[in-house]
Structure formats: C-alpha cells, structure tokens
Design brief:
With about 120 residues, the chain is mainly alpha-helical. It is built from 5 helices and 3 strands, in the order ααβααββα.
C-alpha cells in the first residue's frame, strides 16, 4: 500500500459530476439548446450565473462539457465522449452481473434437480 492518492478514472469523474442534480440539469439544457453561454443557461435555472460557471467547471473537468471563447463570451457545449465511455463501462458491468446471475441460476436449478432425484431414489 502506498501513500500516494489513487488516480481517479474518467468514469469516476463523470459519475461524481453527474451526482449533482443541477449539473444533470445543465447537461440536459446544453443538449437541448446547443452551444450557449453561462448567462443563457442561468436564465433557465434558479441559480446565479456564477453558480452555473462553477458547475460547468466540474462538468468540464469530467470531460462532459467544453467551452471556447467567442469574442468576449465563453460558449459551452456537451462533449459526449466521456458520457459514452461511462455508458460502455456500465453496459460491461451489467453484462458481467448478468453472467454471474445466470451462473447462480444454473447452479440453483442443478441443485434442485439433484435434490428431486435424491428424494425419488430415497422413496423408491
């Protein structure tokens, strides 16, 4: 065991960013509105522009949004790559659990059949 902090995976960053309902709402707005400013986003939410910018910084750090300067404004847009990678990770996790559950089901069914055969031979 080392004293160095564990590296945070991109999936961890995405899940942490998406844990906040306001950030999920910001992503929904960006997906619906396209490339917009923090001011435009703040007009659709009950929080200040400064709060929107802070949330956008978290989303940006997670790779979920990107901003670029257009004159004096910064325009933000959804970057789907990190979300797609997280969805692939979740699908692989679900597939792994499906395989595990199928194995458990096969074992349980085999045990039931063996028990039924044993009862039949014991009473026969």
């Amino acid at each position: 065991m080392t004293d160095e902090p564990e590296a945070v995976s991109p999936v961890d960053g995405v899940l942490a960013a998406l844990a906040d309902p306001t950030r999920r709402q910001l992503l929904d707005l960006l997906a619906a509105l396209g490339e917009v400013t923090a001011t435009t986003l703040a007009e659709h939410l009950p929080i200040s522009r400064q709060a929107v910018v802070k949330h956008l910084a978290v989303l940006d750090a997670a790779g979920l949004v990107g901003g670029h300067r257009a004159g004096r404004e910064v325009r933000y847009a959804v970057r789907p790559e990190a979300l797609n990678a997280t969805a692939r990770w979740m699908a692989a996790l679900a597939s792994d659990w499906d395989r595990r559950l199928a194995t458990i089901k096969r074992i349980a069914e085999a045990a039931e059949r063996d028990e039924a055969v044993q009862r039949t031979t014991d009473h026969g």
